[in-house]
Design brief:
- The chain has three domains: about 120 residues, Sandwich (Immunoglobulin-like), CATH 2.60.40.420; about 180 residues, Cupredoxins -  blue copper proteins (Immunoglobulin-like, Sandwich), CATH 2.60.40.420; about 200 residues, Cupredoxins -  blue copper proteins (Immunoglobulin-like, Sandwich).
- Helices cover about 5% and strands about 35% of the residues.
- It contains four helices and 32 strands.
- A six-stranded mixed sheet has the order 10-9-12-17-14-15, with no helix packed on it. Strands 21-20-25-30-27-28 form a six-stranded mixed sheet. A five-stranded mixed sheet has the order 11-19-18-13-16, with helices on one face.
- Bound molecules: CU-O-CU linkage.
- Its cofactor is Cu cation.
- One of its GO terms (cellular component) is apoplast.
Length: about 550
């Protein structure tokens, strides 16, 4: 194993998109930010220096932070922010980790522009479980606003309004040819006829789920959230914020043309979104075609919920034995969390949101409120004043989560965690409610990958567990909880620390759709989280 060292400087950078020049926050002046390359087992050290005007933290999304919770990065959960002019060194090992993941700012809405890929190759001499591709390419999906994301966030939270619509979707920072004033701003992937390519696709967007596809080319998905799956061939990949997917494409021997590859939104909720597709170009030749004659991908409709459900139900881990993380066959701690927005359920549609906002989302009637003392620090040193350990195991007032009438569900903003014993086998059923507009919530858990053992419509029933897949379920770090449906996940709580869990639609996290699991240390010497690094930012 090697040590990979990176320097990340957070800075103001001038950039022009859609014919408007503005200042954005970047890492090292790059947008998207630099890719971290490493191999499984390597140690990664990232020196982060804050040379801009906002507080910042960086999260390594999908890195399980094996006994290194202090380096996980969610602000006020594992650390207080790195203030302007200060720095902090993140230091972690890629223990049993491989594949495509990403890093992003984890405070306010800075991740709109502060994000980049993490590519972890297998150890030297260990091949992929599929024929080696001719080339590999990172595809980062993002969003663009012609206003400052920090300003937008404040406006939205103060108004209680619906999420703001971005001005463009981006592929590796490029909106593609269909937007005004963006003809030249298109990502181009040149390919050789007869060869195959691995695309490492990352949805780093703030608030939009996508379908990704290529005209006239099927995609063979080989890994999701960094873990291998039994290859799955599809015309389109559903990918929510926080999800990553590796897919192979093979280029026909007789290919001479150009094809659009790109994005169509998936948004089941009836809210306004940007409907202009973002396209990149896959090119087998240098022949210049006018963009109107290039074929477009055949993507599902914006509300194609059954396409999404079929895709998720088709995912199977490639080999459980190989990844040394068995599927828990028994359960020590069984949790049922309701996940949703509360608007309709509040008197006069006004809910007190977290941190003085006007809108509210919740998990089990608790709306996550950001503390001022980092939760991990409080947990580690047994300090009061950050969170209370009384997050409920199940909803306080059970009801028909998918139907009517809508009960009064106003919840109180609070900072609570569920405390879990070391090595407990946890089963967590995430039950989507449909109290406001029906919506799929991509729920991300820090510090763990989890097996998705069940997925269904309606209210979860105990009898549903008879149909769980305990043999080869997919191992993910972000899973979509369907509108009016549920998912069941299992994992062994073998990594002590305080682990954030939240909807990766950023606006929903701002509204409080978040919670934390506090996993205790074990009894043995090597089952204990070490103390904090000396340069941990003070609260
Ligand atoms: Cu990718 Cu808590 O985040």
């Amino acid at each position: 194993a090697t040590t990979r060292t990176y320097d990340f400087k957070l800075q103001n950078t001038t950039i022009t998109k859609l014919c408007k020049t503005r200042n954005i926050i970047t890492v090292n002046g790059e947008f998207p930010g630099p890719t971290i390359y490493a191999r499984e087992g390597d140690q990664v050290i990232v020196n982060v220096t804050n040379q801009m005007q906002y507080n910042v933290t960086i999260h390594w999304h999908g890195i399980r932070q094996h006994f290194s919770c202090w380096s996980d990065g969610p602000s006020y959960v594992t650390q207080c922010p790195i203030q302007p002019g200060r720095s902090f060194t993140y230091n972690f090992t890629l223990y049993q980790q491989k594949g495509t993941l990403f890093w992003h700012a984890h405070i306010s809405w800075l991740r709109a522009t502060v994000h980049g890929a993490i590519v972890i190759h297998p150890p030297i001499g260990v091949p992929y479980p599929y024929p080696s591709p001719h080339e590999e390419h990172v595809i980062v999906l993002g969003e663009w606003w012609s206003a400052d994301a920090e300003v937008l966030e404040k406006q939205i939270l103060a108004s209680g309004g619906a999420p703001n619509v971005s001005d463009a979707y981006l592929i590796n920072g490029h909106p593609g040819p269909l937007y005004n004033c963006s003809k030249q701003d298109t990502y181009l992937l040149n390919v050789v006829p007869g060869k195959s390519y691995l695309l490492r696709i990352i949805n780093a967007a703030l608030n939009i789920e996508h379908f990704f596809g290529i005209a006239k080319h099927d995609l063979t998905v080989v890994a999701v959230d960094g873990e291998y799956i039994i290859p799955l061939t599809t015309r389109a990949i559903p990918i929510a914020p926080g999800q990553t997917t590796e897919a192979l494409i093979s280029i026909n021997k007789s290919c001479t043309g150009r094809y659009y590859m790109g994005l169509g939104p998936y948004m089941f909720a009836n809210v306004s979104i940007n409907n202009v597709p973002s396209y990149a170009i896959l090119s087998c030749s240098n022949s210049s075609l006018s963009s109107s004659s290039i074929l477009r991908p055949n993507l599902p409709e914006r509300n194609a919920t059954s396409f999404l459900a079929n895709y998720v139900r088709s995912l199977r881990s490639l080999s459980i034995a190989d990844n040394r993380m068995p599927v828990p066959q028994t359960v020590d701690k069984s949790l049922l969390y309701t996940v949703g927005l509360n608007l309709e359920a509040c008197p006069n549609k006004i809910c007190g949101g977290p941190n003085n906002t006007k809108f509210q989302a919740s998990i089990n009637n608790v709306t996550f409120q950001r503390p001022s003392l980092a939760m991990l620090q409080a947990f580690f040193f047994s300090q009061n004043g950050s969170f209370t350990p009384d997050f409920p195991d199940r909803p306080i007032h059970p009801f028909d989560y998918t139907g009517n009438p809508i009960p009064n569900l106003q919840s109180l903003p609070a900072t609570k965690a569920n405390v879990i014993s070391f090595n407990a086998n946890v089963q967590l059923v995430l039950q989507g409610t449909s109290l406001v507009s029906k919506e799929n919530h991509p729920i991300h858990l820090h510090g763990y990958s989890f097996y998705v053992v069940g997925y269904g419509n309606g209210d979860f029933n105990l009898s549903d567990s008879a149909n769980f897949n305990l043999l080869n379920p997919p191992l993910l770090n972000t899973v979509g909880v369907p509108a009016s449906g549920w998912v069941a996940i299992r994992f062994k709580a073998s990594n002590p620390g305080v682990w954030f869990m939240h909807c990766h639609l950023e606006i929903h996290t701002s509204w409080g759709l978040a919670t934390a699991l506090a996993v205790r240390n074990g009894d043995k010497e090597d089952e204990v989280l070490p103390g904090p690094p000396a340069d941990l930012p003070p609260c």
